[in-house]
Fold this protein.
Amino acid sequence: MSPLVPLRGSEAPRNTVILGDCVKVMATLPPGSVDLIVTDPPYAVRYRSRNGERLLNDDRVDWLEPAYCSMARVLHDDALCLSFYGWHQPDAFTQAWKAAGLQVVGHLVFPKRYVSSTRYVANSHEQAVLLAKGRPPLPRVPARDICRWHYTGNRRHPTEKSPQILAPYIEAFSPEGGLVLDPFCGSGSTLRAAHDLGRDYLGIEMDPRHRETAYRRMLA
Ligand SMILES: C[S@@+](CC[C@H](N)C(=O)[O-])C[C@H]1O[C@@H](n2cnc3c(N)ncnc32)[C@H](O)[C@@H]1O
């Protein structure tokens, strides 16, 4: 079925933010009940923000395969998943996408005006892949694979993404009224962008503080 037709008959909860481990929560969702996934999982880099905050599961990779397999199960046939990822762990991420049967059909780069860390090179971009389940139809107007970064100030979450950079992809890859899932939703940036574009949303977040932030953000 084309992702441009929302799955109104599905049983997945809509317009809510669930607290829990996304692998366990996604196991409760019906297969094929989600129109688009846009997500920003931990990069498995032991990230530490300026004020010392860390992310859950950012020190391990064993959750990657179960998480992407669960995403593939709940995504309906011929639909897309946009996922940020850590370039530091290419093998682990690639292995998880392959195990889930998801095919890389695009690579997105978000150039920053500032340097976020420096080692051999001065790191100044984020990256994401576009993963396909089956053969999604091509969008009428393809979104560019380079999108200028918009800095949020990380006030809501230590690795907060801006809804502004997510919106063009949500618009291109999901139908109005369709269900957009973010299983690692943090402060709810995907949910905000989806809602503002007339999509339904479902967020899952394991850290109670971030779940609360996302929940309150969606009340505003
Ligand atoms: C990179 S952050 C997402 C930030 C988000 N894009 C934003 O703009 O706020 C990843 C999030 O995944 C959460 N997380 C880690 N493991 C999880 C799991 N198994 N299930 C659900 N959430 C998880 C972390 O607590 C963290 O908030």
Remarks:
- The CA atoms of residues 20 and 33 lie 19 Å apart.
- Helices lie at 22-26, 64-74, 90-99, 163-173, 189-196, 208-219.
